[in-house]
Amino acid sequence: MNTTEKTTLVLASRNRKKLREIADLLTRLDVVLVSAADFPGAPEVAETGRTFAENAALKAATIAAATGHWTIADDSGLAVDALDGAPGVYSARYAGPQSNDQQNNEKLLTQLRDLSDQRRGAQFVCCLALADPQGTIRVQVEGRCRGQLLHEPRGQNGFGYDPLFWIPEYRKTFAELTLTAKSVLSHRARAFEKLIPRLGQWVSPSACTAHHFSDGDQNQWECASSAKAAIRDAAPRGQRTEA
Q: How far apart are CA 14 and CA 11, in angstroms?
């Protein structure tokens, strides 16, 4: 299938790093992923929801209606156990409305400076929403990834809180993982693992294989995955396991 036959899928974000990461997760679908930044008339969407799910749905519906294309939106962030789930939906602007990644990380480290490693548990949460060209939400899913927060940043990859988020079983931060490893292990990857079969059903059915299951004789969609190989590659030597 050539590019002109592929469905345009808009990412309701202007974050180019996020666009590259999500494009890598969607390589098996016959879609062309573009950013909201590619549509000059697309509005900035205020994240006024009280939850990640509400914000994802708001962004997907608004950008889809504005562009007339299928649109996917994610709202994700960090939930720190010792901070009762903060920064949560305020992750991107934790240090203030115009704050950047470094400022957000510095504020977080200041708040956690007196906590031992055992009290630095956290999880990344990602909620995804898919809207049709009319702005109706068709699918919503969620993915999570547990880890710990370091006392100082490590790694040059990723964005946001990635340099602080340590995955003990792999002995690396998100910012030290390769894109291939992160495309399997991260909260966003786990959310897309749930979304892709349903995304294929709505947007790109030719990219998925139909299977019939006995329960209710419903037709369900399943896409091929390289998760097992990627997890093995991501694990440090001596700790690799079969997935």
A: 8
Tokens coding 16: 């180019």
Query: Which pLDDT score, from 0 to 100, does residue 242 have?
Result: 33
Give the pLDDT score at 204. Answer: 66
**24 in catalytic set:** no
For domain 3-234, the question of CATH label 3.40.50.10490 is answered with: no
Give the model confidence (pLDDT) of 117-143 as tens digits.
999 999 999 999 999 999 999 999 999
Distance CA 51, CA 94 (A): 15
Give the residue among 19, 28, 21, 33 at the shortest CA–CA distance from 181. Answer: 21
Question: Residue 122 gets which letter from DSSP?
Answer: E
- Residue 142 burial (10 A CB sphere; 0-12, 13-18, 19+): middle
Rounded to whole angstroms, how far apart are CA atoms 140 and 131? 9
pLDDT under 50 in the chain at which residues? Answer: 1-3, 207-243
CB 139 within 8 A of CB 198: yes
End-to-end CA distance of the chain: 32
pTM of the entire predicted model = 0.78
Set 30, 75, 132, 162: catalytic member: 75
